[in-house]
């Protein structure tokens, strides 16, 4: 009798283990802390809800990042009832009145999409966030510098902004903008674009254009957030990886801000965080290298 009970117990345990860990599992993503420890969505969300600013660094064509942004926004809207603000790199400061009109229902979708210069992947990747904001009555803030000014800087340095009318300067971070060329992200850009003496001026202008975007997004994140509120900001990961870019400008202006970052990376395997991705952000969203792209 005892042998029969023991055999049944072993069989039950085997079946339970197999059910919990199917051998053909194909995980779509994994979450890790900065140190490479696996973390659940719920535990991450709890920590995010205690921050003042959360920067969700995406790869713009990654569908899982866009899906998880929506999940994070929903979760934080519930945890921070009435105190969540949504910020988006994807809308520029000069169209903020249109963003506000659409958000409160004063502008229909057709007119909004015709006038606000949405990104080509707006329909699939960012419209769901705006629809959630309308449902949950979340304030939405476009934080990016109008791209024409970044283009001017890339061609002629930050001094190109000095002659702008005062009204247009309201769409930028306050001038003059300080640039720290030693930040890892900017050093990476220098290497990417050929940081030798022959290309120094041109590369420096490109970095200044990036800094203009980072500084402007940081400025309007701070301007749009009231005490006690949490601002969830969606941006390309390069703008917040390694806690520089937007993070650096936020800390220069308001050192006491509680800032948490998420970065999206691809890996061949999802079992552990690759060494080069350690400490890139407070939380790492890891997706398979062969994940389909939205464009």
Automatic annotation (TrEMBL):
Q: Residues in domain Haem-binding uptake Tiki superfamily ChaN?
A: 44-250
Please list which residues make up the signal peptide.
Answer: 1-19
Q: Which InterPro entries match?
A: Cofac_haem-bd_dom
One Pfam family named in its UniProt record:
Cofac_haem_bdg
Origin: domain of life: Bacteria
Q: Keywords, A to Z?
A: Signal
Gene3D superfamilies, from UniProt?
3.40.50.11550
Q: Protein name, please? A: Iron-regulated protein
Name the species this protein comes from. Answer: Hymenobacter jeollabukensis
